[in-house]
Amino acid sequence: MEYILALDQGTTSSRSIIFDKNGDVVSISRKELTQIYPKPGWVEQNPEEIWETQLSTIWQVIAKSQISPRDIKGIGITNQRETTVLWDKHTGKPIANAIVWQCRRTAEICEEIRNSNLKDYIYENTGLMVDAYFSASKIKWLLDEIPKAREKAEKGDLLFGTIDSWLIWNLTNGEIHATDFSNASRTMLYNIKELCWDSKILDALDIPDTILPEVKPSSGLFGHTADSVFDGREIPIAGVVGDQQAALFGQACFDKGMVKNTYGTGCFMLMNTGDKLVRSHNGLISTIAWGIENKIQYALEGSIFVAGAVVQWLRDELNLIDTAEESGKLACSVSDTGGVYIVPAFVGLGAPYWDMGCRGSIHGLTRGTGRAHIIRAALESIAYQTKDVLEAMESDSGFRLKSLKVDGGAAGNDFMMQFQSDILNVSVERPMVLETTALGAAFMAGMAVGVWVNQGDIISKRKTEKIFSPQMTDDERKRLYSGWKDAVKRTLKGDV
Ligand code: ADP
User: Same domain for 56 and 125?
Assistant: First the structure.
């Protein structure tokens, strides 16, 4: 039997998963990662811990599945995006902790960039809004603040990488310094039109290009593992792709107009826009989905800040439920919310409203409002927010959604998925393998080493667990959604 090993290096844990030729999970191993919060709003991780936890899950998953490394035909890597590491080229030691994507320490640097004449250039050429999430300002901060860092960088002694590059470097024992198109497109330094590091942005931020990794196709040979990893056995690292793009691929959204939505703490929605770089008028990001054989596919990306987190809030702050799973049953115990809407703008509202100053609200309370109505309104709010972002994507791209592919923890909620289908008026497809991120990376690697021949082969391996079809009347859908829009309008700052 032939197997693919997927490394899924996420924000909270490092995981290794072995997939067989049918695309089924053979076994999984996972290790938590320490989160470091040196100051309010700052988030760091220790790069050496990232590597060590990843390596130990590799060994664990192989032992657990009782397969020989000989049968692993390739390795695919998927990773938390944007998180930034700088390390010494000669010793392999990081010069500081990794600055995690969530870290806000560079908000001021970004404010300065926004106020310069570079803002429009950056959006035009990287597809991104200037924000502290992306790697560029994090690199600048490290070069400015860590003693001698810029001097070393200028001499060519330092290397930069997002987590994929850091893992490749360690897996190959310092032989290969590379990344893929999808990860490069999250740095705010990569020109996604010209497909090169952007010298104008590099110059403006005073970042020497000597530190940058080589950018390669997401599916293809990056290098072979060093002797120390698999006891002398060299295994090709053959797929590399950022986590959300990996999920898009793992959901087989290969054609333009196809969309996946991941329902976790927040939601991440990506629409494949094919070989066309689509610009958003609604504040969505344009990004590279992947590059295969130097053919680039682009995506539009939108996120919802509070999705599954509203369920955690019901559980931990309101004590209305004991477990997240219970929410679905309770929501079904009433036939509707009785006119109640929750707008979970706990940290403001993102696309398409972009009001970071507004805060959450509950509307339509009556004497008859009970616990189940509130729970149902909270779950429905996730579906309404998804519709808001999807409408923005459809209007930006001109594509009409045919079906929505879903994954993530909260996609397990049948009530919510049915409501999602009803409110969008499209079918919602939930796959059998919910590990779509790891599966996407495995597919990238498997295609490069011949375990799977092409994308058609991958489609045949995917299994759908359940399809939810719309059952709501048009009138009902319109009535409910206009109630939501009204609640949002009242929530936006200055309009309450
Ligand atoms: P993340 O990757 O962001 O940690 P996960 O994909 O693990 O998120 O999903 C966890 C989130 O999904 C939590 O916010 C949790 O409240 C929510 N969740 C999990 N199961 C359910 C469920 N059955 N119904 C609604 N929400 C759920």
Answer: yes
